[in-house]
């Protein structure tokens, strides 16, 4: 948590607190308690203005909960009561900017609203103008847009207000605020994580700061909500592009920054300038935070998963141990007659390194019992093993009150290389949006981080370097059914994340046989992906949340 700048506050200065918090959708009282707690902390540091994220009182995104009029009334009542409680607890002097849901009185429809709490009442309100309807957003369907700008006055400073998408689009409210002589533009945001997105936010904010002729404060939500992860990383940027404050990412934080008297140049914070984060770290931490918050917000205290000795389950188990502690992870080894001794040893080694609760449950007896009745062959026989393992994982989940984790990666999901009701079972899939090559990359990064801290590597090296295999038949390797992952992932990235069609892929230099194979596998597997658990979105285009194609898809161009 940031601390107050070292220099004393002078007359005319305004100390602003950036309250980057983690909220839960629908939990009005819980979210209000967090807002109260951080407002007290801001007041102790001498702040006069404290800023919270978009829809912080209701949680974000509230999706169709916004249509429930009783919820909107409860949210408005809670905002009004929060204003009184702030005043009763000696914080009435604070200007507290909070996001919530409002109602368009003319149409009786919800609005994405910002309110200012001050002196025991809701002093001002502002409704979001631009309602995104792309990617993960569905706001145009849910909310009605606002149509006016608001300038708040705090201790002689003129502060313009905006909500998230309002700064991404041209026109009002930004163009209007540019002519209103403001000293600071505050935008509250619920901007989900996406690898590489940080610099895009900063560059946009710098342009808007220049446009309005004042610093811009970008306050972002942090935490996981279903398959979205919000990374925080709030910041303040001056109109000349100078970074004035940067909050840490993936954690709740209260940082402060001083807006000087009118006519004086703003200075960078001396105490709140978090370091930038490399790509592997930000993706890994996004996956861990997504799992951690999914557990917390669904009241799970532990997880269980199958440990095969392979790289996918090894990385998921490591993320789980980082999210909730190894003692809260149940690792289940479920060897069959096709499981190599090396894989069994690697699973046991991983469990020991992570300190997970480990159990071996061989599936031979169950497999023989089914085969005695069904006499399956080929793929059906292979999938029977996966489904027996799925039953065992879910049995432990039910018996011990655990969240079952699916360990499939994006490459496997793309190509349908998974078994419905087998390895696809679970309530959450932490690496669902990671291509196989990225799984290996993050495993190496996590081991390197442990080495740098003088700790033992969590993932056995053999799990990283050995050829991947489902081990459902003798001598099986993933390469028997799929192109080599180094090639496959390049085609998948172009086909899925860049939306390249067949002609585009050929122009990219991929050979026709590979292109046709990959496109066929991906298109035919859509029905499986519809049934796969949620997992954290970390790329520009994730299955389920972003990419929704018809289950029957005959288009091949």
UniProtKB/TrEMBL annotation:
Residues 14-261 form the CN hydrolase domain. Transmembrane segments: none annotated. Residues 460-479 are annotated as: Disordered. ATP binds at residues 306-313, 407. Pathway: Cofactor biosynthesis; NAD(+) biosynthesis; NAD(+) from deamido-NAD(+) (L-Gln route): step 1/1. PROSITE patterns: CN_HYDROLASE (PS50263), NITRIL_CHT_1 (PS00920). SUPFAM superfamilies: Adenine nucleotide alpha hydrolases-like, Carbon-nitrogen hydrolase. Keywords: ATP-binding, Ligase, NAD, Nucleotide-binding. The keyword Cell membrane does not apply. It comes from the Bacteria. One of its GO terms (cellular component) is cytoplasm. One of its GO terms (molecular function) is NAD+ synthase activity. The active site is at 54 (proton acceptor), 54 (proton acceptor), 128 (for glutaminase activity), 164 (nucleophile). GO terms for biological process: NAD+ biosynthetic process. Deamido-NAD(+) binds at residues 383, 412, 528. In the C-terminal section; belongs to the NAD synthetase family. Catalyzes the ATP-dependent amidation of deamido-NAD to form NAD. Uses L-glutamine as a nitrogen source. This is Glutamine-dependent NAD(+) synthetase.
């Amino acid at each position: 948590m940031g601390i107050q700048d070292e220099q004393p506050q002078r007359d005319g200065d305004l100390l602003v607190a950036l309250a980057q918090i983690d909220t839960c959708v629908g939990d009005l009282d819980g979210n209000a308690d967090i807002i109260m707690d951080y407002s007290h902390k801001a007041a102790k540091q001498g702040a006069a203005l404290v800023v919270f994220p978009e829809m912080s009182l209701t949680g974000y995104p509230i999706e169709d909960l916004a249509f429930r009029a009783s919820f909107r009334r409860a949210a408005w009542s809670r905002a009004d009561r929060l204003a009184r409680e702030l005043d009763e607890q000696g914080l009435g002097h604070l200007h507290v900017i909070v996001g919530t849901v409002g109602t368009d009185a003319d149409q009786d429809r919800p609005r994405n609203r910002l309110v200012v709490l001050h002196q025991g009442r809701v002093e001002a309100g502002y409704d979001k103008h631009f309602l995104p309807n792309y990617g993960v957003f569905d706001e145009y369907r849910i909310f009605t847009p606002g149509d006016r700008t608001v300038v708040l006055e705090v201790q002689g400073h003129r502060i313009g207000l905006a909500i998230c998408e309002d700064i991404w689009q041209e026109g009002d409210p930004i163009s209007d605020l540019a002519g209103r002589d403001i000293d600071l533009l505050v935008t509250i945001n619920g901007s989900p994580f996406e690898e590489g997105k940080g610099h895009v936010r900063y560059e946009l904010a710098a342009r808007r700061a220049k446009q309005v002729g004042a610093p811009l404060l970008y306050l972002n939500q942090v935490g996981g909500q279903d398959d979205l992860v919000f990374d925080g990383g709030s910041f303040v940027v001056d109109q000349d592009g100078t970074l004035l404050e940067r909050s840490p990412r993936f954690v709740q934080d209260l940082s402060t920054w001083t807006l000087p008297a009118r006519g004086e140049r703003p200075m960078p914070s001396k105490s709140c300038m978090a370091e930038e984060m490399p790509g592997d770290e930000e993706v890994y931490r996004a996956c861990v935070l997504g799992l951690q918050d999914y557990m917390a917000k669904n009241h799970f205290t532990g997880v269980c998963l199958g440990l095969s000795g392979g790289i996918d389950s090894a990385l998921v188990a490591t993320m789980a141990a980082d999210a909730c502690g190894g003692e809260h992870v149940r690792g289940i080894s479920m060897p069959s007659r096709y499981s190599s001794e090396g894989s069994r040893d690697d699973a046991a080694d991983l469990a020991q390194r992570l300190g997970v609760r480990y159990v071996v449950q061989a599936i031979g007896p169950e497999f023989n019992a089914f085969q005695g009745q069904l006499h399956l062959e080929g793929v059906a026989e292979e999938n029977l093993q996966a489904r027996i393992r799925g039953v065992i994982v879910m049995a432990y989940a039910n018996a011990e009150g655990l969240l079952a984790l699916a360990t499939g990666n994006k490459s496997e999901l793309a190509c349908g290389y998974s078994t419905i009701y087998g390895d696809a079972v679970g309530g959450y899939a932490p690496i669902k949006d990671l291509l196989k090559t990225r799984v290996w990359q993050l495993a190496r990064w996590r081991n390197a981080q442990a080495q740098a801290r003088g700790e033992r590597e969590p993932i056995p090296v053999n799990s990283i370097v050995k050829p991947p295999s489902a081990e459902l038949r003798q001598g099986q390797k993933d390469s028997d059914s799929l192109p080599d992952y180094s090639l496959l992932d390049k085609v998948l990235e172009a086909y899925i994340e860049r939306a390249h069609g067949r002609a585009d892929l050929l122009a990219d230099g991929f050979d026709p046989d590979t292109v046709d194979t990959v496109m066929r596998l991906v298109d035919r597997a859509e029905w499986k992906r519809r049934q796969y658990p949620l997992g954290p979105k970390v790329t520009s285009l994730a299955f389920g949340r972003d990419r929704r194609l018809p289950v029957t898809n005959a288009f091949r161009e």
